[in-house]
């Protein structure tokens, strides 16, 4: 039998010729997808209509207009896998570090979850605070690492002396959230710097700076400053808060290239970042006006809540962040449930071993007012 030889040109030509005799309707790409039914379908966001959502430290403004436009434009590239090279370059330039020191991911949560796998999977110990964000300590426990949680001091700041005393030869990582969640307290740069300087090089300090825009001191110093100074530090940041992209999931880690290499081995790499938020993240970095507008809203919210709590005789923890904690006259889980029944959602302090406190996020002025009026009824004030 004679062999059949088909060149690439012949093969492609036969496909085109065959296609010419087929009706166009046979090809799904010939017409735009029928999305009308989907766009008209009501989406259940998990809350009752009109809910006052002050429980997740979300930015009520949402993304800036320029960010929304960038994301909308990027949707046409949804069929392509994301390459985060440009974002990495922009972040490196923004922070004044090399691209090898940046790793972008699916929210800062990605790094909180993979850091224990990268550095504690073979045993070892994590030292952290008791009343803090729980994702990283919880993940460390899942993989069998020992976790030593030290209570905050009486003013709800890190007890760095006790943290230092808690270190053992098995300690491989210290986890600090600054400003701290849920207390909203911001720890002094020099104190953290001195703490890092006192540690052996075998210990990594992971500093969660989700609220970084409420962190910098007058000299602009933060955890990234410590990395530049050569300390063994990982810093995680997020676009969820001031940039209003909580539901889109974008964050990044900054560290020495050798540490980034270890984290990358356990991360999603580019696959955790969708095209829309990739473009939105780039646009967000250029929109400082939106950031300042949100910071102004937070400041006004803080002042409002402070005034209301003072007039009601309620103790609270002064905050540097978009949320604060207030002490109530009943178990916070009871107060939370009663508030939720009235369509006001906050967090209970039991989640952080603070059973008499509620954590409240700053919302729009009318939301804050509704929260206070409802809280008065719940607490019989």
Structure, briefly:
With 381 residues, the chain is of the alpha/beta class. 39% of the residues lie in helices and 14% in strands.
Structural summary, described in words:
With 381 residues, this protein is α/β, with parallel strands linked by helices. It contains 14 helices and 13 strands. It has two domains: 52-61 and 288-379, Alpha-Beta Complex (Aspartate Aminotransferase, domain 1), CATH 3.90.1150; 65-284, Type I PLP-dependent aspartate aminotransferase-like (Major domain) (Aspartate Aminotransferase, domain 2). A seven-stranded mixed beta sheet has the order 2-8-7-6-5-3-4, sandwiched between helices. Strands 9-10-13-12 form a four-stranded antiparallel beta sheet. It has a two-stranded parallel sheet with strand order 1-11. Helix 3 packs antiparallel against helix 11 and helix 5 (109-119) packs parallel to helix 6.
């Amino acid at each position: 039998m004679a062999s059949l030889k088909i060149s690439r040109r012949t093969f492609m030509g036969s496909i085109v010729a065959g296609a010419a005799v087929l009706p166009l309707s046979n090809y799904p790409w010939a017409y735009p997808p029928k999305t009308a039914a989907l766009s008209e379908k009501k989406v259940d966001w998990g809350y009752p209509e009109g809910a006052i959502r002050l429980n997740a430290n979300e930015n009520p403004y949402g993304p800036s207009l320029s960010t929304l436009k960038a994301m909308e434009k990027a949707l046409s590239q949804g069929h392509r896998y994301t390459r985060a090279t440009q974002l990495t370059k922009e972040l490196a330039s923004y922070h004044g570090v090399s691209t090898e020191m940046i790793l972008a991911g699916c929210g800062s949560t990605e790094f909180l979850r993979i850091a224990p796998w990268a550095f504690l999977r073979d045993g070892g110990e994590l030292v952290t605070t008791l009343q803090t964000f729980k994702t990283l300590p919880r993940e460390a426990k899942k993989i069998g690492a020992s976790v030593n949680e030290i209570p905050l001091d009486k003013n709800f700041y890190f007890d760095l002396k006790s943290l230092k005393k808690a270190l053992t030869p098995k300690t491989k990582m210290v986890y600090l959230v600054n400003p701290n969640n849920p207390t909203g307290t911001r720890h002094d740069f020099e104190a953290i710097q001195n703490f890092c300087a006192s540690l052996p090089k075998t210990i990594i300090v992971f500093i969660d700076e989700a609220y970084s825009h409420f962190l910098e001191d007058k000299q602009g110093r933060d955890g990234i400053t410590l990395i530049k100074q050569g300390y063994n530090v990982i810093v995680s940041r997020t676009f969820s808060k001031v940039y209003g992209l909580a539901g889109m999931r974008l964050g990044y880690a900054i560290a020495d290239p050798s540490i980034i290499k270890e984290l990358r081995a356990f991360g999603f790499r580019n696959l955790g970042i969708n095209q829309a938020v990739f473009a939105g993240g780039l646009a967000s970095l250029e929109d400082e006006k939106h950031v300042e507008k949100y910071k102004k809203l937070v400041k006004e919210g803080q002042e409002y809540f402070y005034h209301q709590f003072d007039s009601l005789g309620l103790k609270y923890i002064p905050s540097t962040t978009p949320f604060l904690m207030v002490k109530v006259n009943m178990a916070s889980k009871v107060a939370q449930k009663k508030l939720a029944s009235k369509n006001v959602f906050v967090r209970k302090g039991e989640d952080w071993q603070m059973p008499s406190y509620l954590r409240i996020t700053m919302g729009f002025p009318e939301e804050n007012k509704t929260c206070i009026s409802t809280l008065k009824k719940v607490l019989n004030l």
